[in-house]
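In keeping with the milestone schedule agreed at the kick-off meeting, the structural modelling team has produced records for the first pair of proteins. Each record is given below as a sequence line and a structure-token line. The laboratory manager (R.T.) confirmed that both were archived under the project's standard naming scheme.
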Amino acid sequence: MRERFGHQHWWPGETPFEVCVGAILTQNTNWTNVERAIARLKAAGVLEPRKLFALPERKLARLIRPAGYFNVKARRLRSSLRLLVEEFDGDLKGLFAARRGRNLKVASPRRADRTPQRGVPGREIEQATRTFMDRGHLQNPDVNRSHEPVGTPSTALRAPSPRLGEKDGMRGIRFTDSGTGATLTVRQRLLAINGIGPETADSMLLYAGGHHSFVIDAYTRRIFHRHNWCDTDASYDELKALCETALDGKPPAQQLVYWQDYHAQLVMVGKHFCRTRNPLCDQCPLKPLLPRKGNEALA
């Protein structure tokens, strides 16, 4: 996948806070609209936790109007901002740490079941990982950068941000304890916010919080189903456990950026090849991993 697309350098944003805002705004819309909404927040000088929280909800809704569902998203943003500002003094480091906020009571989360779904070939995914993600160092990480999937970051917003290095990751994401217990605690905290579902929470954790929490989206589900790596009714948590188990072989210093880019690569495959209609299986970099007799059935 990397040979085809190059390193995707996800997620865009000049700060982790901008990443969190984008993760909420991108719900049910394409990233171009999110870019326009974020640009309006920047132009208004309010893309900062306390300033954004101080805005009346109606004014916030007007500013993010390009992102669609602006009234709903304004309420969701304010719900997340209320937690961040009132419980953690506007400090994302505190939000993404395992410690509690000033008035927050969080039940101890159960350890996630990281066992792959019965019958799912975890070894095949590990093989795919080695084959398509680890074929040497890329000479040109910007291959096909102009072809952006709907609902994902585009070059325009990514450009001002520093490039992701294999060791450094995205600027600002090394400030938290990303151990399993801490990650589960913070994930539960995010999921308790009105309008924050598993995909949005995991996007925040992985790309803004520096936590090892893999993101599952419609592209991932479609690719895995077509390769017979999951059942049609596999839950979000089952797919998440499958991916995290299969992709757990990297050293801790490399695993965060590896997971970030692996999710980005799956999105690129889903957008350009593993499409809902008329999939381009013959051109897909994952073609060798398709079921032998399944190619015709996918269309």
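The second protein of the pair:
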Amino acid sequence: MTDRAPRSLRARRAAPGDLVPVPQRSRGQVLRAQAPAEVVARRLRSRVWRVRNSWWLVVPAVGLPWLAFLYMGITARRPAWLLAAAAYLAAAGGSVALMTAGGWPPFLFGLLLAIATWGTGLVHSVVTNSAWLRFKAALTGEPVLEAAPAPPPVEAAPADPVAAMQHELRTVVATVNRAGGKLPDGAVPTVREIGDVLTPLLAHVAKRGADVEELHNLEAIVTEYLPGALEHYLDLPEQYALTHRGPSGTTPAEELLSQLHLLLDGTRQLQQAVYDHDAQRLATQGRFLDAKFRRSDLDL
């Protein structure tokens, strides 16, 4: 389970035509307008945009992860990234101090610390890049123009995230059905199985409501993991995807099938967790009723 809800669930998505209030500016802060949800989604689907906004990975690749996380932490105002920058800077300083202390043991230990810092920082940067891209995609890059005070805007009713996921799931399944001839054998049935698990689960969650963690996990599968795997595969030439073997020894077709089976297992586990949670709430209420009506509350 993840420990952080996605940005789309921490703040309401702005639908076209919504009036979004402008936040107050603190001293020295440059405000940036928020991009509409459809613009964010289009940017994240664009491979060219993702590559262009991942330039910062060069910085940790050359051995300066602390500088990369310092830049991101200041730009996005994320304390966790600033703490990571401080940790990598401390490790880098320690390695330099050891290597210049004199003698082979300190030099060797400092060299190992420098290599470990570089490797850890690079892997950490690659993992963090998805969150950085989501932050960048939500910004238009245009400064907010301050105008005379206006009447309070009237917000549109919040979009139902579960309904949006149901629509997205139907779209993914329909796309797979249309592109079945381009997918490897077994991909279409597996996607349909995933849909068969998610469809009643989303209906159940829509009926009784869901907490942020459940919505986050469902949204990640429906809007990111499943369509992302299919999109990346369909971007490849069909013959290449079926025959080319990468460094791991698997073809893109085999990799897609492996990811789809992992997603199927994940959706089944998520379904079980949601139903177990509901059953636990029922059992909790049963214990409460037992304590209230079978013991002292009925004693006269």
